[in-house]
Design a protein that fits this description.
The chain is of the alpha/beta class. The protein contains eleven helices and 14 strands.
C-alpha cells in the first residue's frame, strides 16, 4: 500500500493537554481522506503538525515515503482556517501576488481559476465574493506550485447549500482529473460522505479508527440485530431453514443484512427450537450512529 502521508505515534502537548495523542494516520495516494471529529478533537492540530506549522512533542511523519519533510512539504497545498486573501484585489490579482513564490505564469493562473470556476469574475474584488467563492479562491491559491496533496481544514463550514456543492465539485474534479490526494477535516458528516473514500475518526486527540468508505457502508446498511443465547447455533438453524443468508455475529448478537421484511418468522423459528431471544431491533440510521458512538454527541 502506497501512503502519501503516514504518521507514527504523532503527539502534540500544550501544557497539560495532549491535543494529538499517538496518532497513527495512513493516507493512500489518490484518496479523499475525511478527518472526522468534533470541534476541539485535534483535527487542526494534526494538520498543522503535518504541514510543519507546529512542532510535534513526539512521533514521526513521513510524506511520500520520505522523512525529508522540508522537501516533501513543497508538494503540499493547504487551506487552514480562513483563506488569506486580499479583499481589495480581484481573483486574478490575488493569485498573482501569491504566484511570486512559485514563479507561476499568467497562463497557469488563468487555468487554475478556471478549475475552481473563478475565471469569469473579472475585476470584481474578493471582498465582494460570497463565502463559497472565497473558499474556492483559497483552494486556487493552494494549487499554486502544482501540489500532489491538498490539506483543507473545514472547507465547507458556514457555506450555504450552493457554496457547499461548488466546493465539493471542485474537490472531486481535482481528485479525478489531477489525481490530487486530499486530507479534509469536517464535522459535517452528510456532506463529507458524498466525496470521501476513507475516514479517520478522532476524539480527544486520539485517532480511534481508520476505515474506507466501502467498509463503512458495508457495516452501516440497514440491519436487524438479534440478541440470542447461542448466536452460532442459532445462525446455523436459520441457515438450514433458509431464513437468512447474509449475516455476521458480533458482541453475542446476530446482525442480519437480508430477510429484513419478516423478522417475526425468524424469531418464531428460534423460539420453537428453544433458543432464548433477548432483543430484536432494526437499525436504519446506522451511518450517523456509527460516528456518534465514536465521537460523542
Amino acid at each position: 500500500m502506497e501512503y502519501v502521508i503516514e504518521t507514527k505515534n504523532l503527539s502534540k502537548k500544550f501544557k497539560t493537554k495532549l491535543a494529538a495523542n499517538n496518532v497513527n494516520m495512513h493516507i493512500e495516494k489518490g484518496s479523499i481522506y475525511g478527518f472526522i471529529g468534533k470541534n476541539g478533537a485535534g483535527k487542526t492540530t494534526v494538520m498543522k503538525l503535518i504541514l510543519g506549522l507546529l512542532r510535534p512533542s513526539g512521533g514521526e511523519i513521513t510524506i511520500n515515503g520520505s522523512e525529508d519533510l522540508n522537501k516533501q512539504r513543497a508538494r503540499i497545498g493547504s487551506l487552514i482556517e480562513d483563506p488569506g486573501i486580499y479583499k481589495n484585489c480581484s481573483a486574478f490579482e490575488n493569485m498573482k501576488r501569491y504566484s511570486i513564490l512559485f514563479n507561476t505564469s499568467d497562463a497557469e493562473i488563468k487555468a487554475i481559476l478556471k478549475i475552481v470556476d473563478l475565471d469569469k469574475t473579472g475585476k470584481k474584488v474578493a471582498g465582494q465574493f460570497s463565502l463559497g467563492m472565497k473558499q474556492r479562491l483559497g483552494i486556487a491559491i493552494s494549487l499554486l506550485g502544482h501540489p500532489d496533496i491538498l490539506i483543507l481544514d473545514e472547507p465547507i463550514n458556514g457555506l450555504d447549500p450552493a457554496g457547499i456543492k461548488q466546493v465539493r465539485d471542485t474537490i472531486l474534479r481535482l481528485n479525478k482529473e489531477k489525481g490530487i490526494t486530499f486530507l479534509i477535516s469536517s464535522h459535517l458528516l452528510d456532506e463529507l460522505a458524498k466525496i470521501t473514500t476513507h475516514y479517520g475518526i478522532i476524539r480527544d486527540g486520539v485517532l480511534l479508527e481508520e476505515i474506507s468508505a466501502k467498509e463503512l457502508m458495508d457495516r452501516c446498511v440497514t440491519n436487524i440485530k438479534i440478541v440470542v443465547d447461542n448466536p452460532e447455533e442459532a445462525s446455523k438453524l436459520l441457515q438450514t431453514k433458509k431464513l437468512i443468508n447474509k449475516y455476521e455475529i458480533k458482541d453475542k448478537a446476530i446482525y442480519l443484512y437480508d430477510s429484513l421484511d419478516h423478522p417475526e418468522l425468524i424469531v418464531e423459528a428460534l423460539v420453537r427450537d428453544e433458543f432464548k431471544v433477548y432483543e430484536v431491533s432494526k437499525n436504519e440510521s446506522a451511518f450517523e450512529n456509527y460516528f456518534i458512538e465514536r465521537i460523542g454527541r
